[in-house]
Amino acid sequence: VQLVESGGGSVQAGGSLRLSCTASGFTFSTDCLGWFRQGQGKEREGVATSSFGTLNYADSVKGRFTIARDNAKKTLYLQMNSLKPEDTAMYYCATTGDARWWCPLDTLLYTSWGQGTQVTVSS
What we know:
It is built from no helices and eleven strands.
């Protein structure tokens, strides 16, 4: 399994970024995929997940972030709008390696991780 994130950067509050995660080595079209983040000195937390049938978002990003997957390109995206300084973190994509109707935000269920991409939002 290989997951490679890209698209991070530095933006001002209110700005937008789109993260991408290219994947290989597992059944991309059906397995659980998710975006997670870890701020400095904080625990890693779930941001958004995508199953073959449903989407799931953390309350802190609902209405601002959108997760999407392109099965043909084996790429997972995270469109982030109306960014806030508290969104500053390293962002990771991950997979559980199995197919589920509902993909939880629980980091412990995800077995393969990318190396991360840094997002910094200034006020």
